[in-house]
């Protein structure tokens, strides 16, 4: 591999989160995604049900109902009003163009009382009596999640969603939007580099990364087209390999992303925890982790909001597949302040998998699950419906093919955050066939 191709490969890893993120922003604005209808910039798109297989977004959750807003702050500040939510968990997560989590509003961060907030663009120098959320790029996503126990709970969630208000302070100001490029969509490499160049120019990365970005300047020359194409191919393959592990601790077979979203060290605002514990100090590691996080779980929260643990294999290291049957014994309720769940996804898209009973996750709020006399919960994962009544009540359906599990722990307790809590193991049943 030539030096220029190596540089282009590193550049792919660097720019991938920006490009992939803004492509998803465009989807939400132009067409919507699954249960979330299209909504113009600076307005909310509210899902009216829990996500399912039709919601084709990487590692989407099946625990909360989404309220999404794509913000364009080039036209000036916005005011956000949120209602009181009683004892219901919710979070509004603010994500900049580079996928940095820059602020939180919600149960953990600001409480469940009604509140108002001012969201301002980079460089804003005004004053406000409201709590201020300072954006690091003009494009920001609000990823809103309202806890929901199931279909019967949807009307209550809908009422809360409809009480959320987002207003432009200057509704007549022009919006810059996301710059268009002239690259052909059929040429994946050319399109990627065109978007990376245009969008990194429009939405500047932190000044502290200027030196790193400077390494990539020669790639924009016309005579670097071959290196860009080779670097794109190598970058795609390298990122897929990097997602397989080695960058997060493994507890009881679960790769636990305690610091998978700690790559933002420069724009930590309202509701974030600005401490060294929650920052990745090494620049190259931070950039790689950012790309991995985008590939595996775009718009995931910091661990102090929610911990995401993933399993591609059982406790013995064999890949999870619908050809086998598995059990997970949860001996006692996990130490969380909100709730927990285990969700099943396909590979390699990491989408929810269609099944006969429309169950895509199982956790402490799942209707009809059955606990043992000692308070433990045994989850059965298989392709075919179990014959045993308890196993059937606690069944998480699997596909015919390989799959991935994600264990979510919302508002995790101290033993989860310090790594001392024991995760329930995924065990393959002897002589199981998955049928």
UniProtKB/TrEMBL annotation:
Listed InterPro entries: DUF1214, DUF1214_C_sf, DUF1254, DUF1254_sf
Coiled coil spans: none
Q: Which residue ranges does the record assign to the DUF1214 domain?
A: 305-413
Identify the domain of life: Bacteria
Positions of the DUF1254 domain: 41-166
Q: Which PANTHER family match?
A: BLL3101 PROTEIN
Give the protein's recorded name. Answer: Uncharacterized conserved protein
Organism annotation: Herbiconiux ginsengi
């Amino acid at each position: 591999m030539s030096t220029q191709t190596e540089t282009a490969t590193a550049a792919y890893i660097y720019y991938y989160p920006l490009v992939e993120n803004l492509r998803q922003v465009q989807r939400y604005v132009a067409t919507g995604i699954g249960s979330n209808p299209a909504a113009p910039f600076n307005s909310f798109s509210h899902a009216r049900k829990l996500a399912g297989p039709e919601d084709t977004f990487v590692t989407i959750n099946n625990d909360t109902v989404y309220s999404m807003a794509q913000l364009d702050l080039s036209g000036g500040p916005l005011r956000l009003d949120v209602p009181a939510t009683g004892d219901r968990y919710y979070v509004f997560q603010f994500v900049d163009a580079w996928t940095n989590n820059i602020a939180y509003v919600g149960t953990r961060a600001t409480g469940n009382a009604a509140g108002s907030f001012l969201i301002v663009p980079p460089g804003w120098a005004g004053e406000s009596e409201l709590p201020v959320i300072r954006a690091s790029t003009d494009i920001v996503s609000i990823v809103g999640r309202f806890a929901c126990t199931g279909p019967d709970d949807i009307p209550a969630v809908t009422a809360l969603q409809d009480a959320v208000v987002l207003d432009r302070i200057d509704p007549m100001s022009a919006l810059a939007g996301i710059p268009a490029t002239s690259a052909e969509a059929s040429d994946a490499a050319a399109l990627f580099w065109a978007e990376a160049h245009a969008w990194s120019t429009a939405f500047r990365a932190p000044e502290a990364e200027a030196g790193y970005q400077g390494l990539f300047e020669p790639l924009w020359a016309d005579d670097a087209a071959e290196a860009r194409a080779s670097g794109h191919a190598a970058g795609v393959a390298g990122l897929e390999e990097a997602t397989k592990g080695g960058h997060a601790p493994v507890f009881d077979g679960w790769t636990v992303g305690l610091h998978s979203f700690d790559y933002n060290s420069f724009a930590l605002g309202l509701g974030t925890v600005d401490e060294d514990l929650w920052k990745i100090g090494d620049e190259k590691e931070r950039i790689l982790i950012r790309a991995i996080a985008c590939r595996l779980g775009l718009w995931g929260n910091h661990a102090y909001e929610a911990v995401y643990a993933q399993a591609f294999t059982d406790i013995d290291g064999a890949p999870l597949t619908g050809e086998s049957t598995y059990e997970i014994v949860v001996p006692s309720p996990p130490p969380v302040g909100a709730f927990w769940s285990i969700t099943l996804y396909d590979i390699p898209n990491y989408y929810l998998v269609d099944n006969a009973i429309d169950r895509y996750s199982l956790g402490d709020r799942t209707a009809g699950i059955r606990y043992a006399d000692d308070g433990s919960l045994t989850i059965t994962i298989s392709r075919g419906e179990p014959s045993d009544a308890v196993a059937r009540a606690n069944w998480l359906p699997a596909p015919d093919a390989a799959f991935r599990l994600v264990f979510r722990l919302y508002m995790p307790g101290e033993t989860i955050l310090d790594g001392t809590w024991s995760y329930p193991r995924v065990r393959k049943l002897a002589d199981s066939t998955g049928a």
